[in-house]
Amino acid sequence: MSEETEPLISSQQRNYAHDDAEHEAAQQQSRAIRIRAIIWSLLTLVFIVSVIVILFGPDHYGHVDWPGALPRDPDQAARKLLDMAPVIDGHIDLPIIARRVWRNNVSAIPLHDMMPMHVDIPRLREGRVGGFFWSVFVSCADHSAEGIDFVNATWRVRDTLEQIDVAKGLIAKYPETFQYAISSTDIKESITQGKIASLLGVEGGHQLGNSIAVLRQYYDLGVRYVTLTHTCHNAFADSCGGLETIPPLHYGLSPLGFKLIEEMNRIGMLVDLSHTSDMTAVHGIMHSKAPVIWSHSSARVVHDVARNVPDEVLSMIGTGEGQKDGIIMVNFSPSFVAPDGKADVKKVADHVQHIANVVGKKHVGIGSDFDGILDTPKGLEDVSKYPNLIAELLRRGWDKYELAGFTGGNFLRVFAAVEDVARQLQAAGTPPVYDIYRKRGDLPQRY
Ligand SMILES: *[C@@H]1O[C@H](CO)[C@@H](O)[C@H](O)[C@H]1NC(C)=O
Ligand SMILES: *[C@@H]1O[C@H](CO)[C@@H](O)[C@H](O)[C@H]1NC(C)=O
Ligand SMILES: [Zn+2]
């Protein structure tokens, strides 16, 4: 910076008349160095303060300014907080409703009206939603038709493309409401413009047709997470099954599964560990260079089902020595939340609180599974009810910064970190992964 040297050689410094020219020059130089050191210290201080503000201030909701305290009434406070830091939900199944009810006819789907399940535009607005992942889910193949080795061709890739198509069609049909988003920056921009950031997530390795090339193409189509499994094992990884654990096949990730993680890291596809077996989750956390997510999972200690995350796995997440950054986005499905008939907003808050206790408040978020679950907890019946959960956490002493992390800031941090890892790996010239599923019979074994 040229202007830095200018004032340092001021006329005042020439008053040291008794010094000879050489001494004077040396003094001027040492003074210059001292002043420069002070300026640099100040700049460093400013830098450190800004980093602290960025990391611990009103989080990655860069547009948020906090006009004083929240109202005393928790329900009013929750709404005000969400107006500034809206919900980013990790998993909403609206596209599968479009498929099953309307045969994906975008023209016929009335998102301004009362939709049959939990999601439509009026209720999204009422619930202060700022963004969500549209799950482009298709179900696991029937084992008897596909074959235990996953080698038989299935329609899963076609069907996934159709789900990507219907999600994009609906996003485009309501441009005043939804904004297609493929990056953490996009999400923030959408929210700033009062739109609902709309991202795509693929819910299971079975949707990749055993092919890492398909993963890359999904990324190019805008998909930003892949859940490693759904309720079935696949060529890459073991699933946890459903409510009950199923016997393992690979004992975690398969060799191709490890390669899949490497390619996900390189391209910037979020590694989603919901639905996976505990061993798959452990492998995923250890092998991923980037932070990991659970797009829709709760805590097993609070309710003991295979789909929830056990404490041993939770304790691997964090920013400490040997841990990986990540976020567990809590699922609202009553069957994952509590014993039959007992699921309500307080129980969901228990899951949030438990994860916060074990991992920290910076590692928990929302992954409702709305439209993908048949019933809902009392007080969280649909997307209009998120404020009830925020109010409950306010009653439990969460402050506005912690809650702005929970509603979306924590996810934005994790997403941005995943994008950074991809940038670094690409800058380092990491080559794409070209490994082929070893049971493919349609390609030459060697060349
Ligand atoms: C799709 O929905 C529109 C609007 O309801 C309707 O006019 C059209 O016939 C439908 N198309 C098909 C192929 O069902
Ligand atoms: C593939 O499917 C056919 C029938 O559709 C079945 O006969 C065959 O055994 C399956 N392949 C494997 C490896 O299971
Ligand atoms: Zn799911």
Q: Could you name the key traits of this structure?
A:
single chain, 447 residues, alpha/beta, nine-stranded parallel β-sheet, binds 2-acetamido-2-deoxy-beta-D-glucopyranose, binds zinc ion
Largest sheet: 9 strands, parallel
Structural class: alpha/beta
**Bound molecule types:** 2-acetamido-2-deoxy-beta-D-glucopyranose, zinc ion
Arithmetic mean of pLDDT: 89
Residue fraction in strands: 5-15%
Overall shape: globular
Task: Characterise the protein shown here.
It is a single chain. With 447 residues, the chain is an alpha/beta fold. Strands 1, 2, 3, 4, 5, 6, 7, 8 and 9 form a 9-stranded parallel β-sheet that branches. Helix 8 links the parallel strand 4 and strand 5. Helix 3 crosses helix 6, helix 8 runs parallel beside helix 9 and helix 9 packs across helix 15. The longest helix is centred in the N-terminal third of the chain and has 36 residues. It is globular, with a radius of gyration of 26 Å. The relative contact order is 0.13. The N terminus is likely disordered.
Give the secondary structure arrangement, pairings included.
Layout: H1 21-56, H2 74-84, E1 87-92, H3 94-102, H4 121-126, E2 129-135, H5 143-146, H6 156-173, E3 178-180, H7 184-192, E4 196-202, H8 212-220, E5 223-227, H9 255-267, E6 270-272, H10 278-287, E7 292-294, H11 311-314, E8 326-330, H12 334-337, H13 345-358, E9 364-366, H14 386-395, H15 400-427
Parallel strand pairs: 1-2, 2-4, 3-4, 4-5, 5-6, 6-7, 7-8, 8-9
Helix pairs in contact: 2-14, 3-6, 8-9, 9-15, 13-14
This protein binds 2-acetamido-2-deoxy-beta-D-glucopyranose (2 copies) and zinc ion.
The site of one 2-acetamido-2-deoxy-beta-D-glucopyranose has 5 residues, from loops.
